[in-house]
Specification:
single chain; Peroxisomal Thiolase, Chain A, domain 1; 2 domains; ten-stranded mixed sheet; about 20% strand
Length: about 375
């Protein structure tokens, strides 16, 4: 059984609290700002929401109840979801399943996070790792970048062009943490992080909120919502890592598998996708994943990037929001913010960042461990 085999599910409201560096803003304010914006966008009142999925990876337990009680204690079901970087993506999927199954007509998926100290389960197993102090995320992806450069005969400067594009997109996004265009020289001359990566090629992990309201067709009719601004959830797929022949690229192979499932569920080919919001915590990931998704053939991503094929207005806009590199990656909200960006684009309401003629969008996140979620939205 897939989501597409259930009754239709639509995104009817979207909202954000700007992604930003750590501040004195409470997580309650971050979440409420996003939720209230989504409710207003959908033109629904809080009492109509029947179930809520709250994504976070860094907050204390039961954070959602602390946020939602400010909207009114209506007795709705509340589920908290932690799935590393894919927490928001998982919350969106579960909210969609509940609406699709007929258990609710109006649902909320909200992500909120602040950079509280976090324990990683992998570090608390009591089993030592021979490289636990050496192979951290930025080192792992710096090594992948070296592999990508060698395999495809491209340069570090080529890979940094991903950051040039995404900072340019983020500069037009009022919700982005980084809102400044950067030249290639600025990106390459920044603070070194690992290997060829500089800080501006890596995502900032700050704080923020993102929310979407989902509805069934019955909910849209019952509450007289604007069907012309409702975006169909065409497919949703989720998988976790398994053994691969080359385990150094497990995120890439996992992405390929999950994307294939989602595309098959929706009956859509990669060539039909107009825009993609994907997990670009580090520049090389965007190149790896667009090839794994079938947006272009393996080894050809740099060519399309240089030719403007991945720009807003190009063949397929990749990370028009600015992606994790410029939009930011506050963890809990990230996957839900991707859904909101795609809905905004498919409505034709993205302003200066509008990718014209968009009909199909793909949202993709991987999470530590690793898990992968791919959602397809269709106008």
């Amino acid at each position: 059984m897939t989501l597409s085999q259930l009754r239709p599910v639509y995104v009817v409201g979207i909202g954000w609290h700007r992604y930003q560096p750590q501040s004195e803003t409470s997580f309650v304010e971050l979440g409420l700002t996003a939720i209230r914006a989504a409710l207003a966008d959908a033109s629904v009142e809080w009492p109509t929401v029947e179930t809520a999925y709250v994504a976070h990876a860094k907050l204390p337990m039961a954070a959602g109840r602390t946020i939602l009680r400010h909207l009114g204690a209506t007795g709705i079901s509340i589920v908290h979801i932690e799935n590393a970087s894919a927490s928001g993506s998982a919350a969106f999927r579960q909210a969609g399943i509940e609406v699709g199954c007929g258990l609710a007509d109006i649902a909320l998926a909200v992500g909120v996070d602040k950079p509280y100290p976090t324990l990683l389960a992998e570090n608390e197993t009591g089993i030592t790792n021979l490289a636990e102090d050496a192979i951290v995320p930025f080192t792992h992806f710096a090594l992948l970048a070296n592999q990508y450069m060698y395999r495809n005969r491209v340069s570090a400067e080529d890979i940094a062009l991903v950051a040039v594009k995404n900072h340019r997109n983020g500069a037009m996004n009022v919700h982005a943490q980084r809102q400044r265009e950067r030249t290639l020289d600025e990106i390459l001359s920044g603070k070194k992080v690992s290997g060829t990566f500089t800080a501006l090629q890596c995502c900032p992990v700050g704080e923020g909120g993102a929310a979407v309201i989902l509805a069934s067709e019955d909910g849209i009719k019952r509450f007289a919502l604007d069907a012309s601004r409702s975006i169909r959830v065409a497919a949703s797929a989720a998988r976790s890592q398994r053994p691969y022949e080359d385990d150094s690229r497990y995120d890439t192979y996992l992405t390929a598998e999950t994307t294939k499932l989602a595309l098959g569920e929706a009956g859509i080919s990669p060539s039909s996708i107009d825009l993609v919001e994907l997990h670009d915590a580090f520049t090389v990931e965007e190149l790896e994943y667009v090839e794994a998704m079938g947006i272009c053939r393996e080894g050809e991503a740099i060519h399309h990037l240089k030719e403007g094929g991945f720009d807003i207005g190009g063949r397929c806009a990749i990370n028009p929001s600015g992606g994790l590199i410029a939009m930011g990656h506050p963890i809990g909200p990230t996957g839900i913010g991707q859904i909101a960006e795609i809905a905004l684009q498919l409505r034709g309401e993205a302003g200066a960042r509008q990718h014209r003629g968009s009909k199909i969008g793909l949202a993709h996140m991987v999470g530590l461990g690793a898990v992968c979620y791919v959602h397809l939205l269709q106008r």
